[in-house]
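During the reporting period the student researcher (J.K.) took over the structure-prediction task from the postdoctoral fellow and processed the backlog of single-chain submissions. One of the processed entries is reproduced below for the supervisory committee.
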Amino acid sequence: MAENPIHVEINGDIATVRLNRPKKFNALDGPMFTELHDAMYRLGFDDAIRVVIVTGEGRAFCGGGDLAAIQSSDSERVDRGLWHLAGKFHEGIREIRAMGKPVIAAINGPAAGGGLSLALACDMRIMADNAFLKIGYIENALSIDGGGSFSLPRLIGLSRAIEIAFLDEKISAVRALELGLVSRIVPADELPKATLTLANRLAEMPTGALARAKRLLSASFDNSLSEQLDLERKAISEAVVTDEAREGMAAFLEKRRPKYR
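J.K. obtained the following structure tokens:
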């Protein structure tokens, strides 16, 4: 595979964004941050793509930030460098969260530090049974980044998020499923097939409805009930005049399966 830090594969209406620094356990660096953002931006606006998969090349999903590169930089300017790199990373995370189509993390190996944050930013996570998750930042005397401090307590609650962050232990696939950090676990050799099956199932769904659900559910954490009801009212009023809603309602009345894809 080419040595681009991000490799995008298109299979019909499903795109796979593959982190491609396998010799470095797909460690995140400046070029990877830039390409991750650009790939997510392009795919988000590509109407031909209905689902996006994020995974890693080789044995790891993503081992986190490239600490060797950080340590080799000028110590008097490392804070400025990290400020810049974190901003580039955050741009990619924002694109994932803003994307109106489902994003699946296929966790094929260790996901630590920024790799864990990246996985948590995705809408769904499917994990190989031999993979593990790890905060990583705390053990290295750094601070949680990449939206991890936002996603983690929302997925599992504040108390458990604090425990995971403070202890910074490896989280097995079984434990990740128990905690609700991943949607499902599968044998490692079945991960690509299982992920594609899930992606195809989502691709059969109405993408506009999925986008509205994603926006509403994400917004609910910051809104009062009254504010959320206003958003729901607006969303359902907009949805009902779309082609996919017409198809969905017609299929219901005609007692047949709707065709969105």
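The committee noted the following: The domain at 6-203 is CATH 3.90.226.10 (2-enoyl-CoA Hydratase; Chain A, domain 1).
J.K. will present the remaining backlog at the next meeting.
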